[in-house]
Amino acid sequence: MNGMYRFRLGMIVLLALIIVPLAAQSPSPRILFVYDEVNEQTEPYIARFRGAFTAYGLPFDEAAAGELKSRDLSRYDVLVVHGIVQAFNAKSPIRDWLKTKPAVTGKRVYLFVTANRWFLDNLFRDLTGLLEKSGAKPVDAVSMATKDTDDATEKAAVEAFVGKVR
Ligand SMILES: Cc1cc2nc3c(=O)[nH]c(=O)nc-3n(C[C@H](O)[C@H](O)[C@H](O)COP(=O)(O)O)c2cc1C
Q1: Considering the entire predicted model, what is its pTM?
Q2: Given the CA of residue 120, which atom of ligand 1 is nearest to it?
Q3: Is the CB of 56 inside a 6 Å radius of any atom of ligand 1?
Q4: Is residue 107 a part of any domain in this protein?
Q5: Fewer Cβ in 10 A, N or C end of the chain?
Q6: Ligand 1: which of 41, 121, 123 to mutate, most ligand atoms within 8 Å of CB?
């Protein structure tokens, strides 16, 4: 093997070692974080979700359900949805939005539903059913009654949940 041939071979191997791992790295999914609305009960969760996305280095956009009409959903691969039970499950801006049959077909959806105590299962069932009807792919879901949970537990639950999005 002459020197030039060895040099070229070495360069090819070197390039392969650099390029193959780079190509194998999948780009960050385009994430939209959706919450019901801003109120005293949702605000701590919104802060926890923002903190968790940032901690994992995941870029994201966010919107309250009522703002989604004007949002181009084709820009996102993943929806991270936090719904809370309100008024014995009579009120849910996220449910209202899903009833409009938004263009979520094929999107990966992570659904996180909380309630102080009552009607958690009802909202969870409503949102899961509507997502499936819309052709979304709920890949992970958590429902949590928060009556006896403290701040640290809720923060840890959100972090564990967001950790699965990567
Ligand atoms: C207007 C309003 C109505 C609510 N109604 C209910 C309810 O009917 N049942 C329930 O279990 N929790 C209810 N909650 C509590 C929220 O679901 C709960 O606070 C939320 O899921 C966040 O959990 P956290 O209390 O741990 O912060 C209500 C909250 C608000 C703001």
Answers
A1: 0.86
A2: 11
A3: no
A4: yes
A5: N
A6: 41
pLDDT per residue as tens digits for the range 44-83: 999 999 999 999 999 999 999 999 998 999 999 999 999 9
CATH number of residue 122's parent domain: 3.40.50.360
Q: Whose CA is nearest to atom 15 of ligand 1?
A: 116
d(CA 66, CA 62): 12
Domain assignment of residue 3, yes or no? no
Query: Which two structure tokens, joined as six digits, stand for 98?
Result: 């899903």
Q: Which domain holds residue 71?
A: 27-163
| CB-based contacts of 119, cutoff 8 Å, min separation 6 | 85, 88, 89
d(CA 49, CA 53): 6
Counting the structural domains of the chain, the total is 1
Within-domain flag for 22? no
